[in-house]
Amino acid sequence: MARLFEKSSWGIVYRKKWSQYEVLLLERKNPKGKIVYVIPKWHIENEEKAKETALREISEETWLPHEDLEIIKFITKINFTFIATYKDGNPTINKDVYLFLVKLNWDKEPDLSAFENSVEKKEKIIWYKWYRLEDLKNVEIKPDIYTYIKKNLQYM
Question: What pLDDT score was predicted for residue 149?
């Protein structure tokens, strides 16, 4: 069986709205068609740095302007292995993930009028939503970003 190695960057995007923090989650369909909640993420391309990938992907997947996103902190590197049953040959993937805390320095919602014809829509992103921190406890999401956020609240 083939073994592949991948590197990705993920961003926990937050904003302060009035006196509360909110975190951005994307709603997607997984390879089995189930609706899941994720944070913006993607593969690191060529010689790109992990933090560059995080900012680029957040902007591309959410329409939030790149210049209004600020990496506050590198949180951790996560490594996991899984069998990619959705790929030809069912390869084993060994993945390194770089997780960042990213602040949105903007108070408007992005213009999503072009969403229906976008590449992201075709890639199974259904929508996105801001969640208050306390509401994250009730959302099934991997990794458990609520725990990472609680450990890093002093940086927000």
Answer: 94
CATH node for 3-155:
3.90.79.10
- In 10 A of CB 44, how many CB atoms? 20
CA distance 19 to 16: 7
pTM for the structure as a whole: 0.83
SS3 16: strand
Q: Which two tokens stand for residue 73?
A: 């902190």
Contact predicate 16/6, CB 8 Å: no
- Which 3 state secondary structure label does DSSP give 39? coil
Contact call for residues 40 and 57 (beta carbons, < 8 A): yes
Among 15-24, 54-63, 84-93, 122-131, the least confident range: 122-131
